[in-house]
Structure formats: structure tokens, C-alpha cells
Amino acid sequence: MTLDRFVESSGLLSLTETDKVCYLAFYFLKTKNLEQFTALDAAKWLRDDLHLATPNTSRLNANLGTSRNTVKGPKSDSFRLHHTLITELQAKFPQLLETSQDVIDDGTVLPKLRYEDTRGYIESLAKQINASYERNIFDGCAVLMRRLVEILMIHSYEHLNIADEIKDSSGNYQMLEAIIDKARSNNKLALSRNSKGCIEEFRKLGNFSAHKVYYNCTRAEIKPVILDYRALIEELLYKSGIRK
User: Fold this and answer.
1) Among 128, 139, 194, 205, which residue has the least CB neighbours within 10 Å?
2) Into how many domains does the chain fold?
């Protein structure tokens, strides 16, 4: 569990200053094996990790010294959490030691404003696209970029009630190549000129990364088309009715 998620789920920001510190000490005990801390450490947590005002360390030291949730640590001016509080918080937050599934990204390919408040699976894909690019996983990024295009193309046809145009005789959706070919000339879908010109590039990048044995995608192949990709995704979000 990330610190942000712990702060949110525990309601930490609504606690007293001393209790905030005790909760943070528990978090760092479980995630970093930090068994003792000082008032100076606690002040740094509040200031740097939570971006709160820096507390008066003398007052905080005195409050920690009289708190029932702390005991004196082995080093001068240090504290440890009382075992009762540790037991209580372990029962309250058993998920703390589980590996987080949160995808951390900086919005390099798709800024958050492009995908937030859409649909959960679209937001997840967008974050994975960003995270893979930012961590130099370019084949993965290209495949995910292609996947998001395919999903939004299908949603666009569904939104316009013309999904049958891109299905085969068994009622299954056709391959993306066929969908793109039809989309370019579909007056009802009415893709912009720029989208018609660049959409095939993202299909090819994803296909090469997924299927070509000796091919590896690089930053040099994705970086120049990021702006076109953003514009395409935003257009398809509106065409699909996901954005209003």
C-alpha cells in the first residue's frame, strides 16, 4: 500500500498531530522496518511526506513522551510504538504489507486530463501506457497503445449504432486492420484528417511489438508520434460518447 493510499484509508489527516505521527510510525514500521523514531523524524514526515506545516518539535517531543501509544526508544530522545497500538493497527490495516497494484505514472504519453473520469479500464490502460514508456518498456507500451485504439474504435462504432459494419458473419469484431480501413471512409464516424493519417501507425507499432520475432520498439519510434496519439485518443473518446 502506498503512503497516499494509507493516509486516505486511515483518515489520518483528521487525527491529532500526535496520532498522525503514531500512524505514520506504524506505516514506516511495516513498510521500512523503522522501529524507532524521534520528534525530528516525525516533523520531517509531516512536512515532507504529507506537505503539512512543520510542527514545533519541542512540543511534539513532549506530547509523544506522554502519549499512551508510545514508549521510550533505546536511543536518546527516540520513541517506539506501544505494542497495543501496533496490534490494533495491524488488525485494522491487514492489507498494508500487500504489494500495491497501483500504477504510478507521470502522464508522459497521455496526460491525466486526457483520460480521467472516463471509465476504469480506460484509465488503467492509459496509466499502463505511460508507466511502460517511462520505464523504457517500449514494446509493452506500443502494444497497449494499439489496444486502447482498438477499444475506442469499437466503442465509437457501438455508440453510433453501426457496430455490425465491423463484425464478421459470426458476429465477432474484425481485426483492427479491417476496422481502420473501414473507419477511414465512414462518413458517419467522420474521423478527422489527422486521425485518418496516423491511426494505422499505432496499429503497426503494436503489431510489430506483439508479433515480429526480431523487432524491438524503441523510444525513437514512439516519442515523435505522442502528440498525434493524444489527439487521436481524445477524438475517439468523444466519438465513442465516453467524453461529452
Assistant:
1) 194
2) 2
Tell me the percentage of the chain whose pLDDT exceeds 90.
86
pLDDT in tens, 153-184: 999 999 999 999 999 999 999 999 999 999 99
Same domain, 61 and 123: no
pLDDT bin (cut points 50, 70, 90) of residue 98 is low
β-bridge partners, 79: 37, 72
Report the predicted TM-score, pTM, of the whole model to 2 decimal places: 0.64
Domain-embedded: residue 104: no
Domain boundary among 39, 70, 97: 97
Kindly state whether residue 198 falls inside one of the protein's structural domains. yes
Q: Amino acid identity, residue 109?
A: V
Residues 185 and 70 in one domain: no
Same domain, yes or no, for 29 and 134?
Answer: no
Q: How far are the Cα atoms of 31, 159, 169 from residue 118, in angstroms, in the given order?
A: 33, 15, 32
- Bigger pLDDT: 152 or 76? 152
